[in-house]
Amino acid sequence: MSRIPEKKITLIDKKNIISILSCITEGEFEEIFTRCEKAIEHRLWYTEYGAHSEKELGEPAKQYYIKKALEKIYTYEWYWDYENVPLVKHIITIANSLISNQLDKYKRKQNREETKVSYNDELYYDVFDEVYDDKIDLLIDCIEHLVANVEDLNFYWEAIKEGKKPREIAELMELPVKDVYNKNDKLIYQAKKNCVKN
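^ thats the sequence. predicted structure below, dont judge the formating
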């Protein structure tokens, strides 16, 4: 994880930083923002739920981390070697560190919640007990259709097909394990309602 350097920012540094930032036009800032978004998006591949969700951050993840990085530059909370490090690279470095810190914070919170409830590491799909073997393929096709346009369920279903355990899925989706069980219940309910004919 990136760490904030110990080097102090001098008064001259502050004046130079303000001078550099004040010379950047609105168009240049938009370009900087776009380049930074592209650079950090691989760290934010799943933002619907979990550590980097809008629910956790209060706004879309890429926008949040870049704004926070800029705040640290403007408030001199993070040393900037402005003579050698371009602004874009500096913003990306800070944003990546903030992303790591947020993920660590979320995992600690998740672990605290999980100590309150114990779960086994198996999921039960009783919906498959309600169809004959020759109908299994039709049931699976129906489920595929159901989850196709529901991002979180689609991701969850793909993990199930890969044989992932609840805790593995929770880690992939950056969710508490209890939410994985809730998704399992939701998937089974939808499958029974739409795919199993009485």
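The mean pLDDT is 79.
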